[in-house]
Known about the structure:
By secondary structure, this protein is an alpha/beta fold.
Amino acid sequence: MTNPAHPNHYVDPVIEPVLIDELRPTQITVGRREVEEKRRRWKTQGFRDKEDFVKSHVMPVIRGPKKRLYILDHHHLSLALHEEDIKKVFVIVRADYSKLDREAFWFVLDNLNLMHPFDENGKRRSYQDIPKRVSDLVDDPYRSLAGSLRRAGGYAKSDAPYVEFLWADFLRREIDAKTVASDYEDALNQALELSRTRKANYLPGWAGAEDD
Length: 212
């Protein structure tokens, strides 16, 4: 069975350029450190490499009410490019729900796990609290920590939706916010230790030993 969060049918096979300012998020937060890292990588590339990069990183979107386009993935990259003054990215439409009214649209997204309406404190909010522009996405430091943890080998990549947010929620419950803000390296070390324990064995990508 196909994961509904990653539809495998293309409603519109045409890849087209779209203004980043016209794309609508399907989540409330990003990890600010993740965005800054993508910006740093962007700055190191030459003009031709940047051009090829944008063309090769196609944003999967869904078409919603009033034909607006909602991002399914790459929120961090979209924000990073926007802050680097890139006006357009390429998108491909994965599903068309434009005939639905707003309430029905968000109900469908919620039940297909195509939205993540949780704020920077890990609290579920109304879909009305989801920003209308990529530039208004809110920083969740624990989302950054979860990304750093994966890159450090704390857990494996997984096809499950919103894996980093699941890990962020776990880390939020275990590591003090003051430590994340004042000593990120220490927070990451704590996260690495926690990631191998049985406390985290319910999470996608867990790489600990069952007999611990």
